[in-house]
């Protein structure tokens, strides 16, 4: 049996360490994505990291460092096709770029783990999780910077996340609150986020809406109606 000639205990244990590290680190990255109800969640990120580690480790064991570097190049290009599958264009907006970038980083974590650099893989995992969590408040703060000048028009949107079965009533509730605040809704979109969660996005077209109005509206939706995620953003189009 060829297995008896190719099996060596210490290289096998080295492979086990690489696989376990890639699986755990990919799971940590995917857990945050799963919590946010993104398209590529826990299992996807774990499998991407594990698969990358397997290919790199295989190349290293069969051909050494030079062959593993060649395989890493193929992993980098190959994961691009997988990332493209989660990017969706909705009208003028493009969604899924952050999820695709996270998959790319998960592949990098797996490749590093497959190269037996476990400490570096842990470090990169920490930075990926920080980027997806700690930078979120900064993004919200930048999006909430008031627009000045009458010549600049902005498209405002208010987004809430709710259970799929409550999408209809919550959409009516959001529309009612916006119209009461004299902010008519131009378009209402319902976007699936997993099997039982949806995002309801109300798009408005106006100029220089007071930040305090939108802040008060989202705070009211969160505190009075118990909506766990209510936010708004503005996009300029000169």
Condensed summary:
The protein is α+β, with helices and mostly antiparallel strands and 238 residues long. It has helices at residues 2-6, 9-35, 42-84, 97-114, 118-133, 135-143, 167-180, 211-223, and strands at 88-90, 93-95, 154-163, 187-192, 197-206, 229-236.
Q: What labels describe this entry?
A:
single chain, 238 residues, alpha+beta, Alpha-Beta Plaits, 2 domains, two-stranded antiparallel sheet, 8 helices, 6 strands, elongated
Evaluate the radius of gyration. 23 Å
Order of helices and strands: HHHEEHHHEHEEHE
Shape, per Cα inertia axes: elongated
The mean pLDDT is: 82
| Count of DSSP H/I helices | 8
Reading side by side through the largest sheet, how are the strands ordered? Answer: 4-5-3-6
What does the model show?
With 238 residues, the protein is α+β, with helices and mostly antiparallel strands. It contains eight helices and six strands, in the order αααββαααβαββαβ. 61% of the residues lie in helices and 17% in strands. The strands form two sheets. Strands 4-5-3-6 form a four-stranded antiparallel β-sheet, with helices on one face. Strands 1-2 form a two-stranded antiparallel sheet. A hairpin with a 4-residue loop joins strand 4 (187-192) and strand 5. Belongs to the MgtC/SapB family. InterPro entries: MgtC-like_C (IPR048640), MgtC/SapB/SrpB/YhiD_fam (IPR003416), MgtC_SapB_SrpB_YhiD_N (IPR049177).
